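Ticket #4471: structure output looks truncated?

Reporter: J.K.
Steps to reproduce: submitted the chain below (451 residues) through the standard prediction queue, then opened the result file.
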Amino acid sequence: MFKKILVANRGEIALRIIRACHEMGIRTVAVYSKADEDSLHRRLADEAVCIGPAPANQSYLDIKTIIAVAELTNSEAIHPGYGFLAENSTFAGVCEDCDIKFIGPPSHVISRMGEKSEAKRTARAGGAPVVPGSEGVVSTLNEAKAICEEIGYPVMIKAAAGGGGKGMRLVSRQEDLFKLYENARGEAQAAFGNPDLYVEKLIINPRHIEVQVLADSYGNCIHLGERDCSMQRRHQKLLEESPGVGISEEIRKQIGEAAVKAAKSAEYVNAGTVEFLYDDQGNFYFMEMNTRIQVEHPVTEQVTGVDLVKEQLKIAYGEKLKLRQDDISMSGHAIECRINAEDPDKNFAPSPGKIDFLHIPGGLGIRVDTHVFQGYTIPPFYDSMIAKLIVYGGDRSEAILKLKSCLREFIVSGVKTTIPFHRKVINTEKFVTGGFGTSFLDSLNEKQVDI
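Returned output as attached by the reporter:
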């Protein structure tokens, strides 16, 4: 096994990786910006090196400096976590060129699956169902118009290199196509440096179902069931659970097999997530593949008992998967809430600052992944997520009751958080009954919800 790994990230995911490494007897190197001098990942790693000032493009996105630190510290591998450089094929390629193991898929796979139209082609070639639409990038407005007429309105225009809702436009009628097409191109160029777009048929209020996969370098690939990530605000996930609400065993088997087919078609290696749209008729369609560990991976760990980060390390080192599909079973129900330092009453504006008091809930079946502590000052430079609250119960009803109790007990003072918002959401009838899709939170009238 590796003797030393550099963790090219910060926050709770850096701590998550450091803990997994220590449990496997692997030494760790943390990199941190000047804004993170007081961070836990710096304190808990075996070694820590400052890589630059607060702005991410001068620290956590600085490939040359990170590679230099890896070489100076004799790190054999780099774990990118999620965000920052995790899905950067250039970074993965530089690691390969420098004989440093990138803990994730090969650079050419990241490139292939990171370009969404190419990812669709790859999934389709593997036999996974895809949303009707363009087979690749649409080069002109006339081409987009022809495809829209063929599949019918409404449609979604999406950035080929995008994510997080950037470069995405809903087009309900042909008269709006030109304006929205140009808007999407401009936003895609600004956000990703790539203006390419593709077109998909709009699936009305679908559920967002994703499947966790593990694949080794020897052609073995398995799935670990699905997660329901439909609780989104403006295409940003806020709450995830596993297993999916109301997913039958037949659909679970079909969607899991489709995910494995997509991963094998991509020649995928390591942990990854295949994402699908699931409609109210029981149809599911490949949407994209995330070539990294996911924020919401703990809910899969809770219901399967598999440590996904440790599996990543084993696969990266060259070990064969010891798990087979028949070894994987889902037991109970897990729900994760992303706790962000944001003010829900001010359109979820970031709320950086010092945490004056912190009380974290505990008990059987309760897990909190966090990097913050009482007295910690949340910097304004990075993602606003400060914790992930994960609860596990024998079934969904028990998990919801446990989640309600935890959210009452979770206290953060000194900054605003999304805890009150989560308390409102989980008391809605649609959440409790599972009758929600990806548009639910955007249409939620909070004043009608009784805390």
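Triage note (M.O.): checked the attachment and the full token line is present. The chain has 15 helices and 22 strands.
Status: closed, working as intended.
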